[in-house]
Amino acid sequence: MNGVPSRVVLFIGAVLAAVTACDRLPGMPSEVAPPSIGSEAWTRATFNTYCRGCHASGADGASIPLMDRSYWTFASDERVIAATANGQGVMMPAFSQSAGGPFTDDEVMALARGMRGVFGGSSGAGISATIVPGDRANGEGLFANACAPCHRDGAPGGSLVDPAFLALVSDQGLWASTLAGRAVLGMPAWNHAMPSRPSGLTQEEAADIIAFVASHRAAKKDAPP
What we know:
By secondary structure, the protein is mostly helical. It has helices at 6-21, 40-50, 52-55, 69-72, 77-86, 105-119, 136-151, 163-166, 171-180, 203-214. It contains ten helices and no strands.
């Protein structure tokens, strides 16, 4: 360039080369890459954002504590994926994009498997994660013996046969709650000691109890909004 010293030209060229060779000016912070789907960091962040409010550990959550290992001893990945994708009753919405939720199918599967890795372990409690058919008549006597002391009208655990409560929860939700229990709130898991049932319940007995409880659910046209 006429009239410009060569050393100035070289300096300007070096600066331009340095600026165009990188994606940001010196001194600016680098962007942090988001955690990959399925990683522990992604699983914990996703759980804390979407799940923790209802499924926290101990007494903090309103529903089954997914942070406790007891749930993962009977819940299969397939069951958790289905519950996450499609929801359960009114209390738990569906989270898959196909049902109006925020997660892709891959994210639903990654979250279910990631939570097992972070909070649980291998399943193997000897009971189905999916509700099995039960005998309502037999369940009535079992409920009175094992559950009513805490779950009849006016009892500290609240009535399980209240149609207003049953309008909010699915049969599968009742099954999962029975299997997992809420030990911190005084509700034992299905195979732990209960009033007049020191050995807990068998799978068949749990199914009979759920059949009896679910029979009190009002017809849809009579259910509260």
